Amino acid sequence: MSQTKTLTTASGAPVADNQNSRSAGPRGPLLLEDFHLIEKLAHFNRENIPERRVHAKGSGAHGTFTLTRDMAQYSSAKLFDTIGKQTPTFLRFSTVGGERGSADTERDPRGFALKFYTEEGNWDIVGNNTPVFFIRDPLKFPDFIHTQKRLPQSNLKSAQMMWDFWSHSPESLHQVTILFSDRGIPDGYRHMHGFGSHTYSLINAAGERHWVKWHYKTKQGIKNLPPAEAARLAGTDPDYAQRDLFGAIERGDFPKWRVCMQIMTEAQAAAHYENPFDVTKTWSQKEFPLIEIGELELNRNPLNYFAEVEQAAFGPSNMVPGVGLSPDRMLQGRVFAYADAHRYRVGTNHQHLPINAPRVPVHTYQRDGAMAFGNNGGAAPNYEPNSFADAPKQAPQYAEPPLALSGAADRYDHRVDSDYYSHAGALFRLMNDEQKALLINNIAGAMDGVSADVVERQLQHFYNADQAYGDGVAKALGVMAK
């Protein structure tokens, strides 16, 4: 017979009575000296860390990445050094605009944030289930996200502010077209593709850099929810995607994705007819075909949602030798913003938490701050350079090759290319009649009640992408077509 565990306080002291507070007599007031009562109430008040400003509602699971292709010509990263090698991963899915209590079946992009626990440290790729994004300059990110949240006065979502922003931001049309298509509401997280979205880079042992787009192709097949069914589930099972993912892994039906990449040389990028670092556009798969390099499998559910999903912290600033960033403006902004959000939301030492901690020794001169786990560096020096032979030293052999830059520093207009429409138009023309009708009806429904000036401005974007696109939305809105 197992021995009963003794209840303790967080400091390890045994608790004699967990049912009754200390009071001055059976009917008297409570005593401040009841440290157990105070500790329980104080901890309870702080159990909710601030939710993420974006991607607040999410699900996550542990898994593995298995390499299936020789990557030596592209990257020196050790996770790519042997075919068949497996690297532990953690993947967090999410909706973008909703709060933690929102429904999983809202029309919204889905986050697809992937952490690799490599033998050289942690590598994070932050992306979505779409290959593009609404904007291409991080200066506009706070403005955009405000339009996806709530009005300051009424605290209600507003179609007017969403479409007002989009109509003033024509570069958003490609992502808007995807969002209101049949793929705007995935059937859970298992039946959707993932994308790194941004342009990243790989660097090989010879110091050669290649630009790369990451794609994760679901092996479960694409499945999406009709709007009426999504609305029903939002009211009856708002945690539908969480339930589906957790249940599938529990029963051993492990979801898998083919990990693929598109590759572009620096010379090809310099001569490319479009900016290859523009996250509102995709790369042609005819010119830059998908190369399959491995398989991602999710095979273990978290034991504790808060510890492993809510406290999980991803950021493109987490890199290992052999991988890198790019001049993608949005990616550059996220390098700062993601890590800074974690410092605010979880704490200065969020990297120490088990879900975020690398699986390799860490040698840093960072010290102190809230929740500094372990011995906080012990007696080792907290400055560098220093005269200690056994203290951590920089390793120049891991330096990235130089990236050629040119031009005077200025605030360059990112809309100078004026091509906001060709990609959205091409996507529209790829759709069959049923998909086009669904897209148009979804847009018209979402624009219900939007002011005439915003409607007129947004309609012009649809027309610029494709005449039939504009005609269809105009007809659905009851507006005279052009």
UniProtKB/TrEMBL annotation:
Any one GO biological process: hydrogen peroxide catabolic process
User: PROSITE patterns recorded for this chain?
Assistant: CATALASE_1, CATALASE_2, CATALASE_3
Q: Which InterPro entries match?
A: Catalase, Catalase_3, Catalase_AS, Catalase_clade1/3, Catalase_core, Catalase_haem_BS, Catalase_immune_responsive, Catalase_sf
- Where along the chain is the active site annotated? 55, 128
This entry's Enzyme Commission designation comes to: 1.11.1.6
Q: Which residues bind heme?
A: 338
Where would I find the Catalase core domain in this sequence?
Answer: 8-392
Query: In the record, which residues are listed under signal peptide?
Result: none
User: Region Disordered: what ranges?
Assistant: 1-28
Name the cofactor(s): heme
Q: Which GO terms describe its cellular component?
A: cytoplasm
Give the UniProt family note: Belongs to the catalase family.
Name used for this protein in its record: Catalase
Query: Which species?
Result: Pseudomonas deceptionensis
